[in-house]
Every structure is written in C-alpha cells, then in structure tokens.
Specification:
It contains four helices and no strands. It is mostly helical and about 110 residues long. The longest helix has 26 residues. The chain is elongated. The termini are far apart. The mean pLDDT is about 85. Keywords: Membrane, Transmembrane, Transmembrane helix.
C-alpha cells in the first residue's frame, strides 16, 4: 500500500519554481482550416450597402429655393417700412435663408 508517510514532502522552493514555470508557459492554440471553413460557411451573407440619403440637406435646399421665390415675388411690393407686411415677410425670409445657409455650411463641413 501507498501511504502518505512514505512520500517525501515536497520542498516549498521546488514547488514554487515548478508552479511559476507552469504558469509562464504559453499555451499553443491552433485553429484547423476545416473549422475556419465551417465558420465562414455558417456566417450570414453581408447585407447590401445602402445609399446614404441626406434628407435634411435636400429639404434645406428646397426651402431655400422656396424662400428665394417668396423674396423675389415680394420685392416689387415691399417698401422699407416696418408697417409694410411685404417688407416684414421679405426680411423674415432672408433671415431664414441665412440660418439655413449657416446650418448647411456646418453640415457640409462635417461630412
């Protein structure tokens, strides 16, 4: 029979040296080509790339076109006086075009 008293006790410094050597050993990892092929076949097909539509920019450009038509339509009727409604609407349209132009310049600089 094999009893614990027959086993020579392991010295502490030998144990630590073997433990450190075992922990420092790099594991070897190998992926077989067959496994890689199975994974590649199992992957779903890549979705088709969607075209980027800049709806905000298109709407802003359309708004500028409409505001420009409003300004040109009101130009013969406006007198530079704050009591003239045509002049006030024309100034509001010009201010709106300026804000849209500012927004468009910032959005184009980020793209």
């Amino acid at each position: 029979m094999f009893y614990a008293k027959d086993v020579e006790p392991l010295r502490q410094d030998d144990f630590e040296a073997r433990l450190v050597a075992a922990l420092e050993q790099q594991p070897t990892v190998e992926v077989s080509p067959a496994f890689a092929a199975k994974v590649a076949v199992a992957l779903p097909a890549a979705p088709p790339r969607r075209r980027v539509v800049h709806a905000g920019r298109v709407a802003a450009m359309a708004s500028v076109a409409v505001l420009l038509m409003v300004v040109l339509w009101l130009a013969p009727h406006s007198v530079p006086d704050l009591r003239n409604i045509a002049f006030c609407v024309e100034m509001a349209a010009i201010a709106a075009m300026a804000m849209i132009a500012l927004w468009l310049s910032r959005s184009w600089s980020r793209a």
